[in-house]
Amino acid sequence: MTATTIPGACGVRIVGSGSAYPERVLSNFDLEKMVDTSNDWIVQRTGIHERRIVNPQTEGTFTLSRDALNKALDNAGMTGSDLDLIILATVTAEMTCPSTACRVADAVGAAPAGAFDLVAACSGFVYAVNVADSMIRSGRYKSIGVIGCDTLSTIVDYEERTVSILFGDSAGSVVMVRDDDPTVGCRYQTLQSDGSMWPSLYIPRRDQEVPAGDENNPVRMGNLRMQGREVYKFAVTKFRDVIRDALEKNNLTIDDVAQFVCHQSNMRIIESAKEKLGLPDEKVHVNIDKFGNCSAGSVGLCFDQVWQAGKIKRGDLIVLVAFGGGLTWASSLWQL
Predict the structure, then answer these.
(1) Which of 23, 51, 116, 153 is the most exposed place for a label (fewest CB within 10 A)?
(2) Is 130 considered catalytic here?
(3) Which domain holds residue 213?
């Protein structure tokens, strides 16, 4: 799906953001003691030096999501009771029922606000932002809390080196509200997928869910499996394509955009896109070296960091970009 600004009487404004991540740091040197790898090997292939991972006894998707949303509400000068709806993008919900979003809504005092989880893997936060913008523009909601959070350390096999080195845990959140200016908010968006490529990135729970040809995969059942080369080729292409699409469809140039807030999948993918598109360093926030690939938490965390650092301001145009399991990809051109 692609969509331009919906004609109507209202716009959508982001009024606050917040993020949360565990205190525990898992460095490349820690991984050297756990699996057959090295700091140099990891840095050369991914750009990652360390990542944050939860203590599963005290932390998880629920706690990080709750904390990120509370910070976003504080930043907006609002309380949970001001929200009409909460959308939580995650593939690591702690339970199928209830949704993690429902637990978060209760924890922040948002009841009886609606709440649901959204599954789009690493694209989840951008998917959720686009959905929230459309729901507010429909006139049915005035304020929505959006969260992207994954704790992939809980589903990573740390005996397998190609997947375990990549992922970290974090949450990012924004509060979005109705605005009288219809030009504010999402000016253009894409939500797209290619389900034929699902075996490239998946989490099997039972033997019958393993696709033909992957029966001897060494990653243990219930953990994330990835065909690294296929995902890399997909991500490099989509990264460039969705940014070009957003700019061309809106007659914009790179100079018109204040920040490209991009999913942190792999430093080589980010650098390739910057080189091919001519994106200047100061317009692409990078934190993968410190946080790894945080899946649905990635873009939300990046947004909060550039927001809190003052790198974006009211009136700026920004582009959100993500791609992930499904396979899915999404973009969102925003007028702040």
Answers:
(1) 23
(2) no
(3) 1-336
